[in-house]
Design goal:
The chain is mostly helical and 140 residues long. The protein contains six helices and no strands.
């Protein structure tokens, strides 16, 4: 089976309407009977219309490519959107990582310059949090 045939039958449900539009004398039942069978589809259309097989195959290939092209464009647009979103997320994560590193360095510098004050603040904060938790637990 050629690439065009695979593309055609890979999207058969969507392409049936295009085939019916082009060859109005083909019915849904007839299309259901030849589903997945390219040569039988071509034979059916030839029998109903009298057109040459080569011409029918060319038109089927065009209809298939037309639909496949729209799918390819949608797939490409979705891929580009995902890539752009991925890039934006990575940039945001890099900014957050950089800010966290800067804040860590600032905190490290404060601790290095004023170790006694830092220990006193940490102790006082811990004591205050402990008291608040104790009062909350006691009131329940």
């Amino acid at each position: 089976m050629s690439a065009a045939e695979q593309r055609l039958f890979g999207h058969w449900d969507s392409l049936k309407s295009k085939i019916r539009e082009h060859w109005g004398q083909i019915t849904d039942d007839e299309l259901s009977e030849v589903e997945g069978q390219y040569d039988q589809l071509v034979g059916l259309i030839q029998q109903k219309t009298g057109e040459a097989r080569k011409q029918i195959k060319r038109i089927i290939d065009e209809l298939s490519e037309e639909y496949g092209g729209a799918l390819s464009q949608a797939r490409r647009a979705a891929h580009e959107y995902a890539a752009h979103t991925n890039e934006a997320v990575h940039e945001a994560a890099d900014r957050v990582r950089e800010r966290a590193r800067e804040r860590y360095e600032q905190a490290n510098e404060v601790v290095r310059r004023r170790p006694a004050e830092t220990v006193a603040v940490a102790f006082g904060t811990g004591l205050l949090v402990g008291l608040v938790i104790g009062l909350i637990a006691r009131s329940k």
